[in-house]
Amino acid sequence: MAAKDEGTGATAGTPPGEEPGERAGRRPRLPEAARPYLPPLALYGVTKLAGLAVFAVLLEWAGDYRGKEPRFGGGAHWWDVLSTWDGWWYLQIAEHGYRPSLVRLDTDGLFTVQQNSVAFFPLYPALIRLVSEATGLGLYGAGILVSVVSSFIAAAGIYAVIRLVVGVRAGTIAAGLWAVAPGAGVEWAVYSESVFVAIASWACYCVMTRRWVAAGLLACLAGLNRPTSAVLIGAVGLAALVTVLRRDSRREHGLAGPVYAMVVAPLGLAAYIAWVGYATGEPTAYFTLQREGWAHFFDYGAYTLDVLRNTAVGKHDYVFAFAVPDLLAVQLVLALPFLIALMLRKRPPLVLIAYTLATIVTVLGTQQMFGNTGRYLLPAFPLLIAPAAALARLKAPSLTVFFTTAALASGWYAHYVIFELGVP
């Protein structure tokens, strides 16, 4: 029998005024601050699941993955495809760590340096190893779990940022749009995009809400995840610098926070690139690996222009040519000026403008697999501001039709095309 509190008549352990058993029947409730995130996360999750289901059906129907090497787009099951290509490298790092080296090849071809795992940044594989050790999951399962959880954090960050610019409804829709964006197939694969966008979106949010210490730390963390973190670091630094230079904002926000963000933001990226140089014995080893091991380097848009010229006349006389992914990427590139103009009309904060434009310049100005342009532009989530604002005017039935169609179609253009018709 339960003991009674003398003087109150309440059961021991039960707050005064509450009947015994009332607490046991009470359902756990989400904190008030978390509730606004439920609709965007639900929309994102359902949309992604639909796209992934279509991807699985297409893979099984075609069956081509069964004849490919597990490292290069193949496997025993359809889900194995999600850990191929770059995913293979990440899993190798998670299991064995790095073995830094810069080995020259005796060839005059496109690749003159042996590919090495240090071209891939350490944060994502470290998270895979940590989750695997903590949960008992294998490295593949841990990698998928990290990507899926990070994708929801990213969707929440996109919602938070775009809500501040064009409202709650548009923010919710933007989270759904990110699920069906070109290249979105890597969001639930063993790839580092979801982790990066999770960090980048919340870093931008912290800048917009003047949380400078958090913004600097997040940008620093992003520098351990992808080389493209340079655009986020630059955007955070520029926003901090403008805050320091303007008298009114300097009075309101002080100097310490923005200066801290400027100083801390580049440390992660700089430290990793310096470590690669030290470990291999060549200070510029990371850039050498990118250029001569993967044929990825900044060429001021020469490669992009070459692809556009070739595809315009139906030719594929260029490096890394993949007909279907390249054609879809051309359409995306042609839409960029329109998306940029519409984004600027909404007058987003400086950090979003700088981050988005720098991302686009980096992607279009670099020689890399053109068919992956959609994947490379996934971090440029502020481009969703105008489409999300426009769709926010639609009623629920119209939005349901739109997202149902887009989700099913994304199983092909955002998943199957990049994993099976190209190289993600």
From TrEMBL:
Compositional bias of kind Basic and acidic residues: 20-30
Biological or metabolic pathway of the protein: Glycolipid biosynthesis; glycosylphosphatidylinositol-anchor biosynthesis
Chief site of localization: endoplasmic reticulum
Domain of life the protein comes from: Bacteria
Membrane-crossing segments per the record: 41-62, 137-162, 168-190, 202-224, 230-247, 259-278, 318-343, 350-370, 399-419
Subcellular localization(s) per the UniProt record: Endoplasmic reticulum membrane
Stored InterPro entries: PIG-V/Gpi18
UniProt keyword list: Endoplasmic reticulum, Glycosyltransferase, GPI-anchor biosynthesis, Membrane, Transferase, Transmembrane, Transmembrane helix
Region (Disordered): 1-30
Recorded topology in the membrane: Multi-pass membrane protein
Protein's recorded name: Membrane protein
Organism: Streptomyces leeuwenhoekii
Taxonomic lineage from the root: Bacteria, Bacillati, Actinomycetota, Actinomycetes, Kitasatosporales
